[in-house]
Amino acid sequence: MSDLVKVKNECTEAESNFHYQTHAQNYDSGIFKLAMTVWRVLLTLLALKLGFLEELTTKFIHIPGTWVDELRIKSQEELKDCSPKIQLTKNDVIAAWYLKSIYSPQPTATSLDPVDYFGIINFRRFLEPPKAGTYYIRCSVGALRCKFSVQQLKEESVAEIARDIRLTTLQYTSTGSVHQSLRFSEDHTSKILTLALRGTGNLGCAVVSHWTTFDYTGLNFSSASLNSQKTSVIFVNSMIVNAWDVKIAPVAVVTKNGSGGYWIRAANTSTGWDRDRSHPSSVHELLVTHYIAASFNSPAGLAQSVERKTLNLKAAGSTPAFGYS
What we know:
Oligomer: single chain
Structural class: alpha+beta
Radius of gyration: 21 Å
Shape: globular
Helix content: 25-40%
Number of strands: 12
């Protein structure tokens, strides 16, 4: 895969080694490390069961596009005197807001605890496409890690957190980093790897996966309609497969709603959700009225006017054909 990187890599040997080591530090290798990870997961589940840790609950949140625009502009203005100059994206500020909503209510005693933020990146644009008439299987999705502490996420503004996320994203999506990420994967194909998490418990890491590039609402499901009527996708039920419904870390999936806004399927503690309602002067004030509670297994309550579900996409004006309902 590393040979398929089409953009010329102009990194020096020292820079290439830096990128390689950055990716290597994100993983632990070996059966012992795997066993330790499993043990930590089991301890977390036990602590949740006994009530020593606050459970994570999942909600769908609708965020107006105008609010995201305002937050991005406000955050960009706050960073105008910072160096280096960067342009925040909407996804940056959404992720930063989500982290604030989780960790701001955490007790001071946990302030020094580390938090690993993982974001999902797509490096397909760096790879040569397959030649005409040929195919190859590839995975062009990777992950970036941005290191925080609970104290940092409690005290810093959305703008400052978004800035760290943007700088880390730029680093991980550079040609040199993508090339060394693929090299690291190739070098460790036959080895057992686990994430080298610094934190413990169910808040030691957080994940945000942005599904905002692909236009799900533009999909045409007329062939799933018995009368071939054109259908409109009005809601996308975003889901990361989790057969056991085990919530050991805050995870959020962000999608567009087709009209300028966003839907987020997000996990947070009850304290975190309650804080958003009880602190109208906080950064979350414009979102208070947009919460819609739902479990991972009960998405139907999200849009009561929708009567049919097609391929996990809510579709209006259609009758699903056999095999799609």
